[in-house]
Fold this protein.
Amino acid sequence: MKIRNCQFIISAVSRKQYPMEDIPEIALVGRSNVGKSSLINMLLNRKKLARTSSTPGKTQTINFYKINNEFHLVDLPGYGYAKVSKSSKEAWGGIIETYLTNREKLVEVIQLIDIRHKPTEQDIQMYNWIKHFGFKGIIAATKLDKIKRSQRQKHISLIRKTLDMNKEDILVSLSSINREGKELLWETIGDAFLQKGYDITIEEAAEI
């Protein structure tokens, strides 16, 4: 994917703060320690556009990034961090639900799962919720570089089985460190746009 330009637009906690531009969106959701910010920076060829943190659960807003003046990449609050208060969990859950159920230009939701671990109950609930509302629920299995090549299929099969995925359901395994799987995820995003009638420019770019 050739990133001609990208920029952070806004951190929103309510509908009235969402960008008003009439362009499609792809959302990313996952547990608070799954590496979402690192994945965004890798996808966009930037080092610090999305802020990474050693403190799980820090992202409490919906962060909108405008890509190539054609679409938004949307970073949703992380879920599942045990040390976060119950009231904070409920607030973040409400923020996510409001966005996913009301954003007309939302094309697809990509759920991040740490490939090293079996999906949690919250992962399963999120996946089923995404599917319930009509999205395909693309799975991005992160941290691929953390496991041996010989163990990859075992871990992928466990994720598919735990989430009760069909053969047609999409899972892309990738690493933010060595960029493996990056172009395949961009191709998957491009296909999602095309299926909804959006002619987004997805051009393969040389790695840098």
Observations:
- The CA atoms of residues 40 and 46 lie 8 Å apart.
- The chain has a mean pLDDT of 88.
